[in-house]
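ok here's the first one, seq then struct tokens
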Amino acid sequence: MSDEPAAPKEPDTSPHQAARDQEPTERMEPAGTSSSAPPKVVVPRWVQLGTLPVALLGLWALARAAGVVLLIFVIAAVIALMLNPLVKLVYRGGRLPRGLAVALVYLGFFLVLAGGVALLVNPVTTQVKRLQRDVPSLVRSANRSLANLQRTLDKQGIKIKVQEQGKTALQTLQTQVLKRSSSIVSFGQGVLQRVVEAAFGVILVIVISIYMLLYADRIGALVRSVMPPGDGSKDDDFALATQRAVAGYVRAQLLFSLIMGVSAGVGLWIFGVAGIFPDGQRYAVFFGVFYGLMELIPYVGPILGGIPPVLVALFSDPLSAVWVVLLLVALQQFEGHVVAPQVFGHTLRINPLIVIFALLLGAQLYGILGALVSLPVAAVLRETVVYLRRHLVLEPWGPVEPALAGAMGEVPPRPRCPECGAEHAPDDTYCGRCGASLTPRVGAPS
């Protein structure tokens, strides 16, 4: 810094000094920063009229024709976007080969998944078997309660036959519960067989996601070349924005399901210890795991997750069922006002109506898997729309307004002084060069 000249007491207004003063400022603002945003890309009218509708219809027809192939690629893309931040963390700018980083991330992912399944399968299967054995006794207890209710109604002269109807309903319910619980037990015992049956689809998803992770840089460069250019910052990078949206949503959803599942299991266990719902202690692990898994399905998941404990409580004691329902309602309030705002925050940022539409559309097209991947896809579409709105402008069909012309890069010409011809701002009263009045004189030609 010793070679910098001392600041003069009086400012130098020469052109050379002005150029020297401007150079450091230009060097301090590198190209691509947010202070010099790139001009918006103008979509011509002929593209709006013909190409865009045809392209949208073509994409829809391709998606319908692809069928399950599209679902496999979407699931693989969601997994790749979720794991890519971990791959970057392991990769660390080239210290490890990218292929080795992907292999290590996948190995850790499978170890964590296998550990979680190993910890949960045995207690859940044990409690489901116990529930299967206890269903007949629960039905007999419910029938005794119905018989007492029938005697009370008969003493009061109320001619309502609830015992036979209740027995029929309970027998049907017993059959269904035994059938479903047997299915759950057989599923827990035959996990390997079912995995082998679905191995082809699973292997395809894994292989495609691995290739996506290996070529993530090339895919990101291709996406950036197709989309309008950003300002060069990470906040205005489309590929990174979609990755953050999907990875953040998946992490938040898994954490959300874990919190709600543990909360439901602990709450029902406390009810069992306190004697409010004795069976809650016996089946707390199964109820909590099932509730947490159902929380992966937005909106209807909490209702589905609360069905098993309510049914068991209804079999044993209707009053216990009322307490269980109150507990589930309290959990819903805790979920909506505490857990969801803290966990999700601004992760999804999608209108609830669009969320419901995405869920219904995904379920209609691909069933439960479609519903599960519909929200990550909706998050990507939201980031796409936000990015395009920031960097695209449609060519107007009528006269160009000045504000829109500036957004399109078309700056309207500035007015000139009638005396010396110098440009001036539209609201100036006097010319900055010659001092002439810019206010129109009465009777002067416009």
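and now the second one, same deal
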Amino acid sequence: MIDERKKRILQAIIDDYVSTAEPIGSRTIAKRYDMGLSPATIRNEMSDLEEMGYLQQPHTSAGRIPSDKGYRLYVDELMHQKSLSQEEIESIKDILLDKITAIEQIMKQTSSILSELTHYTSIALIPYIKKNTIRHIQMIPIDDNNMVLVVITDSGVIKNNTIKLPEKLGNEFINKFSNILNEKLNGLSIESITLPIIQDIQKEMGTNKDLLLHVLDIITVSINSIEDNDVYLDGVSNILDYPEYSNVGKAKEFMSVLKEKDTIYKLLNDSSNNIINISIGKENYIQEMDECSLVSTTYSIGDRTIGRIGVVGPKRMNYSKVVTTMDSVRQHLYFIFGDWLFK
């Protein structure tokens, strides 16, 4: 059992280490923090904390640094969330409440603002849904030989594809084609588009069977590519600003891990179901991330959880700032998607 005095000392050590990246000694704690304790008393308490696994002593340094266990106690019990500045809050609002109509755009912006405000690497995973359904299809003529096919799913993801036309079809035909597709396919997943439905569409169109099959192929590819997930990263190079990654080889290893989609999926989806999840060091279950921490949360449309966002940085990250920022972004996304759902 760790008593309150040890907790105060551990909190001071972590707060100091987050700022300086230097091992902390008892004299530093006595000088910088008004605890009413002598350096000798603090030194004894630090020795106890080390024996209990909350601190560790790197190399032969006289100072200590937090262990994974120490960070875990800190984020669970000792950390005080600080409020964002009004300028930071306005930055989040300006970016996320802009006139954006697709989840992909929103998550790109989300990844950008998270990286900008925390100075770590941000990740946005979209969308973690199976069986996307078609919400709207639009055909837009470009010229006599080409048109754009726009597919919008129920999750708000938009896919655009250019189609070469076999002949000049005219705007009236293309509009009729769009209307028939919307009438017959709205609310259906790819697996639900059966042969009778295709035959019904062909009958109403009258001709152009090849064009219909080509359009359906493109719709299928679009939906399948959505279900394969997309990952957005921002601020990957921010890790170079931290002394833990001043070694080029170590920094390259960090960056190469984040290039692997499967690794990112594992990182984010290994998280628990708390509103804000924090994984520290070896809790990430990926060896290359042993020296990193991940703060993540989910986002939803209605009651459907469709993806996760996260911030990755050194274990010595400013947890309070990251958690506060993540929570603010999460709340803004909740309102954005809530409005979207009822449009």
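notes on #2: The CA atoms of residues 71 and 190 lie 46 Å apart. The chain has a mean pLDDT of 83.
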